[in-house]
Amino acid sequence: MKKLSVLPFLFIFTLSVTFSSVSAEKTNNHDSTGKEQIFDHYLLSEFNNEISKAVEDFYQEESIMIQFDWWDKKYDVVEIDQSEKGHELDYKYNGKKQQFNFVIEFTVLPYTDKLLGTDTITFGVQQDENLENQAKLLNYEHRKPTKN
Predict the structure, then answer these.
(1) Three-state SS string across the chain, please?
(2) Most C-beta atoms within 10 A of its C-beta, which of 22, 78, 101, 138?
(3) Structural domain total, the chain
(4) Is residue 22 part of a domain?
(5) 97-131 residue pLDDT tens
């Protein structure tokens, strides 16, 4: 697993987003509108190796490329769930429920000479015992391409 320097940037990002009231029962969902798209591009660059490896592992092929559709209204390319004090994000990892500070979903369009589908790749980010960020692949969801 790659150590990530995402936490400081996620902290700065969350400070830049205006929140109404914060309660222990709520999580914040961020989408890719306005200034948030800049941060989405940063996350894509930070997770590029993990995303590429997940796609290669799923398709069992190294020559697959990925692209993004920023204009599709059915999904956001990058979605972030952020835990708040008193409310951790619980997800299954290796068959056990674990808690993550952030859960990030990337929606990608893998292709070779044709589009292979619309895939959503979910990573959990948590700190290890050395307080370094670790990304863990939580889920890979493949959807067949739609016919136009």
Answers:
(1) CCEECHHHHHHHHHHHCCCCCCCCCCCEEECCCCCHHHHHHHHHHHCHHHHHHHHHHHHCCCCCEEECCCCCCCCCCEEEEECECCECEEEEECCEEEEECEEEEEEEEEECCCECCEEEEEEEEEECCCCCEEEEEEEEEEECCCCC
(2) 78
(3) 1
(4) no
(5) 777 788 899 999 999 999 999 999 999 888 777 77
Nearest alpha carbon to residue 36 among 2, 10, 72, 61: 10
Residue 73 is part of which domain span?
3-13+29-143
What amino acid occupies position 31? D
- C-alpha–C-alpha distance, residues 30 and 36, integer Å: 8
The token duo for 132 is 């370094």
Whether the CB-CB separation of 110 and 59 falls below 8 Å is answered with: yes
| Whole-structure pTM value | 0.69
Residue 23, in any domain of the structure = no
User: What is the token pair recorded at 9?
Assistant: 């940037």
Query: Would 24 be classed as within a structural domain?
Result: no
